[in-house]
Records
---
Amino acid sequence: MTHVIHPFPPLYDQDSKILILGSFPSVKSREQLFFYGHPQNRFWKLIAGIFDEAVPSTIEEKSELLHKHHIALWDVIKSCDIKGSSDSSITNVVANDLSEILEAADIKTIIVNGKTAEKFFNKYTKNKINREAICMPSTSPANAAWSLEKLTDTWKEVLLAPLR
């Protein structure tokens, strides 16, 4: 177990309408200092597919894609004890303060990416901000039961609603 502090800031701007929260960045994401850095994570393919865009490869392209579609990204957890990238090993959680994003942007929808993010959101964040989050199936490669196509269909409905 290693005590890890979240190593990079949230991604948002004043035009963000949707906030997607992960649990805590993987080892690969921590190395890259950006969200969903593991090449097997389907997050970037999912977002690109929903908005009919090219899959971004650089951090700059990823940031531009999210800003263009009014999506903010952050994680529920600010620091924790974790073994590698294993969500099931997470203990000693300190949650991120979402007020910075919620005060700067008119967030219509909060989405948690997977059950671990949902668990920690409900435990540490929900009552503080007095807002619900929609739990979507995880884009992690560990969620092998969901194909990219099935993930995209499911996420699309929820992601496009606040943008209509």
Note: The chain has a mean pLDDT of 96.
---
Amino acid sequence: MTRSFTRTLLAPVLLAVAILPLALSASAAPVEGNHQGGSEEHRQQHEQRRQALFERAGIDEETRQAMEKARREHRKAVRELRQEHRQRMDEILGAEQRKALQAARQELREEQRTKRRETMQQRLTELVDSWELSDEEREALRKARETIYADMQALRERDIDSRQERREAMHELREEHHEVLAEILSDAQIEEMRTVLSRHDRPGNGHASRRDDGN
């Protein structure tokens, strides 16, 4: 089997296998963020951590209340500044200009996402080429890809109310997939894949600015 065919076959396979933790996190986040119960649970956990921190630092109740008041005032001031800024932008830009700017921003983000995907695929392809896998190993990776895709889809479709339950399900799935990969790849190879992805996913590697117009 030629190296060219190896590139064609393994690039999507390793991409699917390697991005599993990222893909699961991305698919789970919106569900958790939009689920009212999960959001409330998050707020409660955050408040518990804050109170534990105050206890450890020896902050008395009167000081805590003063800090909370200052925080509320700060949030109100920030909201007012944002509203004022949006109004000023509406005065500067016409409706067509705002529409064109939004479209341009979306196009830029899509271009940068595409560039990031292509860069990651290239790096993974180069990594796979360096392993010189056998035909049997390539076939095993192909089957692993199909299994991972099916499991990811099943997890997305599951009706999970609790943030903790989803986290546990994600962890269990990752462990199962690691075991599948460990039968095909060495620990060093799996770690190499993770290293490539961690470098690729660092801030500044092609991430588009959310506010290119100062909005």
Note: Residues 37 and 161 are 8 Å apart (CA to CA).
---
Amino acid sequence: MKLKTNDSLFDRFNPSQILVIGFAGLILFGAILLSLPLSSASGERTGFIDALFTATSAVCVTGLVVVDTGTYFSTFGQIVILMLIQIGGLGFMTMSTMFALLIGKKIRLRERLVMQEALNKMSMDGVVRLAKAILTITFLIEGIAALILGFRFAEEHGLARGMYYGLFHSVSAFNNAGFDLLGNYKGLTGYVTDIPLNLIISFLIIVGGLGFGVIVDLISKKKWKLFSLHTKIIVSTTAMLVFIGTTAVFLLEYNNPATLKGLSLPAKLMASWFQGITPRTAGFNTVDITGLRDATQFLIVLFMFIGASPGSTGGGVKTSTFAALVSAVISMIRGKEDVEMFGRRLPRDIVQRSLTIIATSIAFVILITMLLTITEQGRFLEVLFEATSAFGTVGLSMGLTAKLTVLGKLILCFTMYAGRLGPLTIAFALAQKKRKALYRYPEEKIMVG
């Protein structure tokens, strides 16, 4: 049977497949641009594997790098990375919608379905309106932050270079990417006591990680009792994780000479605050990650696994997924049949989906960690840290990324890709069309626990 003449390649795939193919195409295009001699500071062609790794890290807003962004790439190469971060963070469907609206093109039903999938919305209602709000909010926040950071960087690098640095780091922080231009893999360690930079970057990370639907809800409704259940869960879970992360880093690293010991009390609090926030998919650091205690590094692994919130620029299993599972465990312990949060009952399929996401994600990270222990030389915690950082699209590293083998780079490329899209999205893209079961088997209990 032939397709109709007005059918496009776009119409042949389901929304999950379009997202999988679209992100892969964007990564490949970015890799080709970054492999050009024009993209490197030396004028030499970058190896395709390194270009592919960098493009994957940028599109998947991760921040893991095999070459130093600030010194290896030319201004052209850095701008390519910046554009990949912006498109990857907002989603290529959101950017496509922007261009379609600019040229007056009507958004079709099929495109709205893909946007619904990309934005993690439960219904198709208002997806175009949400896309417009996302673009407005993003460019407004990034623009204001870029100016503030630009004037701060201008003190050291001059006005033009300072504004460029401000724009790059504003986009990188809001999209939870973690790329920086400061050179020599040092991240923001030179700014550990810098109050404006720490506050602006951490603000961008938190807001970018909340999810665009939550941001719109917060702006439009303003009062806690009017917020949706989803917004309440995201805000409360985010606040709890920030508090736990800050407190844990402060207590664990207080007397560590490699990190916080030499700092004043206010500086210790600021560094703890920043490092308690950034593991949830941002990838920036103001203290040396390799100098952290093992307990702190493992705590960061857990935070990287949880990640940001649905519909945001971040990765991980997502805060709402984590909250739903914790609530389900508490309900089970208390002997309740229903999972309740903020005076509402969660549907059973949401709880089951949360369990599925976390179980498949744990299995995926375990598999990647096992593969990396075979291909790479490093302590187990370093390998686990790297695998979780890639899956959670975080970008923090204990130094293993720069020493990866070719096979290790390819493994982490796939890990970042799977982490950005989500294991279930890829599974749905590969799965056959769902068929309704015509019968159900008899129920029988088993012993567990």
Note: The longest strand covers residues 340-341.
